[in-house]
Amino acid sequence: MKIGIVGLPNVGKSTLFNSITNAGAECANYPFCTIEPNVGVVPVPDERLDELTKMYHPAKTTHAIIEFVDIAGLVKGASKGEGLGNKFLSHIREVDSIVEVVRCFENPNVVHVDGSINPIRDIETINLELILADIETIDRRLEKAKKNLKADKKYQVEIDLLEKIKQTLENGKPARTIDLKEEEKEMMKDMFLLTAKPILYIANVSEEQLGNVEQDENVQKVIEYAKNENSETIPLCVKIEEELTILDKDEKKEMLKELGLEESGLDKVIKASYDLLGLMSFLTAGEPEVRAWTITKGTKAPVAAGKIHSDIQRGFIKAEVISYDDLIREGSMVAAREKGLVRSEGKDYIMQDGDIVLFKFNV
């Protein structure tokens, strides 16, 4: 699963990417220093794995992972190929969801591509380019569907949906804001629309703003904008996050304490991005390895088993399941079994986040 980090030039996009991945993407105070997308694979922070590692002392602990792509900055006219528009649009088509960095801080030493700080204008600049690109996609689909309608009346359903989406786009709203039935959502997936991708907004603030985001006008505007499209906003100071990445665990903990924070903004971003894609983790635990496995919410037990090995899915018999909370509370699997907390689940069991599982199979 890929998350694309987007934003106008000089909003803190590449600095955020560097902080998340420690990949060292070039940062510079001018547009387009990121021309090819940088890609970084990062572990999803999961405190449950730390506790299970203490319990089992495994040879190996493996986190779930998520992939971030740092995409070149966008400018007005991208949908028509301005700046690096064609590259931007092709790269953003390849990601599953979007993290949009929005500049909310003032700094005379860091130029803004439009000359002033206005986060809503910046969001709408990017939205407009994506909307224009989607309208082109919809128009091509509509033309094809109308031709096919002459031979097959079933295309009328697609035409109705395409026209509904087009009207929303022409009103300046992204496709993800449309209230659709389940069958319409499935149809829209096949259209690969840019504005249908789920989005998370990052309000990039200064260190001074960080302690007062509830009263910060720019941050609150971004939060309100995101709410209107059922999206989330995470305020963070990208510069501080960059500093945190070079500290060891204890130093990082101390700095977070001084800042009055329970966890880093980056951990919040990575967790929220994982959730944005509708993902969750089930866990396996033992002396060889403690591991988080990524599945989509609503996955049934045999399909989850297939994440470990296709043979386990093929020969699935049952799953022995205990919730993470139950295991930690009882202190050991033996104690949990004595209390009847380890359940035997069959093929129709829908996995829950934090399930600790042992699959039984026969091939």
Strands, helices and their partners?
Layout: E1 2-6, H1 13-21, E2 38-43, H2 47-56, E3 60-62, E4 65-70, H3 85-93, E5 97-103, H4 119-149, H5 155-170, H6 182-189, E6 199-204, H7 207-210, H8 217-228, E7 232-236, H9 238-245, H10 249-259, H11 265-276, E8 279-285, E9 289-296, H12 301-308, H13 310-314, E10 316-323, H14 324-330, H15 333-338, E11 343-345, E12 355-361
Parallel strand pairs: 1-4, 1-5, 3-9, 5-6, 6-7
Antiparallel strand pairs: 2-4, 8-9, 10-11, 10-12
Quick structural summary:
43% of the residues lie in helices and 20% in strands. The protein contains 15 helices and 12 strands. The chain has a 6-stranded mixed β-sheet with strand order 2-4-1-5-6-7, with helices on both faces. The chain has a 3-stranded mixed β-sheet with strand order 3-9-8, sandwiched between helices.
Report on this model:
The chain is of the alpha/beta class. The chain is built from 15 helices and twelve strands. The chain has a six-stranded mixed sheet, sandwiched between helices. Strands 3-9-8 form a three-stranded mixed sheet, sandwiched between helices. A hairpin with a 3-residue loop joins strand 8 and strand 9. Helix 1 packs parallel to helix 9 and helix 4 packs antiparallel against helix 5. It starts with a strand and ends with a strand.
